[in-house]
Structures are given as structure tokens and as C-alpha cells.
Amino acid sequence: MAKALELPAPSGTVPSKEGSLRWLLTLGLLTLLSAAIGGGFGLVMVSGIEKQVEEKYKALPQKAEVASPYTGSITLKKLAPVVTNLAGSESDWVRLEASIVFKPGDEQNPDVLVSETRQDILSYIRTMSLAQIQGPSGLLHLREDLNERARLRSKGAIQELVLETLIVQ
Q1: Sequential pLDDT tens for the chain (169 residues)
Q2: Where are the transmembrane segments (predicted)?
């Protein structure tokens, strides 16, 4: 039997365990270096963006506080519920509860103002059909129409008519 010849390792090579350890250390060092460079770049970018946002915010005109229309002396007076049927139908009934916001001290008596407003609401609702007050847009139109009628009836003394409940059955 012939004996296998062992060839000597070429010069300049290292055993495989030491080579893989160097390879892992090099990868670890490169990973740490790339993480440090990426983090530094991110911090520089964030600080630059923050400066730009602050400059744009300072350049915008500051909005003034919006004055509430309900400042000063105002009074809230509840109306008696309005119950009536709708136009064109004997079976569709409406119950509306509302309040008025007005300025006290005007020439008009508040009780007379409340009664006139209630009667005006009653006469207006009796002219409406069920289709006119259905849905959110119908309720919005009803509210706007009643507010306009209340302001006209009171010659501007009523600031707003607040709808509290609206029941249709």
C-alpha cells in the first residue's frame, strides 16, 4: 500500500478557523461603521428639516383669535315645543323643540319675541313636505331657513335659533 503524500500548505495561507474569524471581525467592523455613518447622516438630515419647518412656521402670519358671537350679554330662551303635521299628509307629524339666543335689553319683550318666533316656525313647518327635511342636508336647510326667518321676524334681535330636537313620525 502506498502512503498518501501530504502536501505542505502554500505559504501565506492561514488555517480555516483563523481565516473565518478575521472574516467575521471584518464584517462586524464594517457593520458598525455603516451604522455610525447612517445614524450621523440621519441626525444631520433631521436637524436640517427641523430648521426649515421652524423657518416656514415663523414666516406664516399668526392667526388672530376668533371672537365668539356669544360674548357680552346674551340670553337663551326655550320655546314651547312645536307639534304639527306636514304639508300634503295627515299621517306625518313633526315635533320640534328649539331655543333662541338673543340680546336682552332690546325694545322687544322676550316673551312676545318667543311667541312670535314659535308661531313663525309652526307656519313654516306646515308648508314643508317629508322629503324636504329628510337627511343631513334637509336638516341643515331647515335650520338655515328657520334662523333666517327668526332674524327677520325679530329685526336682528335673535342671533340664532338652536334646534334641540326634531322628531318626525
Answers
A1: 556 666 555 555 555 778 889 999 999 999 999 999 999 999 999 999 999 988 888 877 777 677 777 777 888 899 999 999 988 888 889 999 999 998 877 667 888 888 999 999 999 999 998 889 889 999 999 999 999 999 988 888 888 999 999 999 8
A2: 20-46
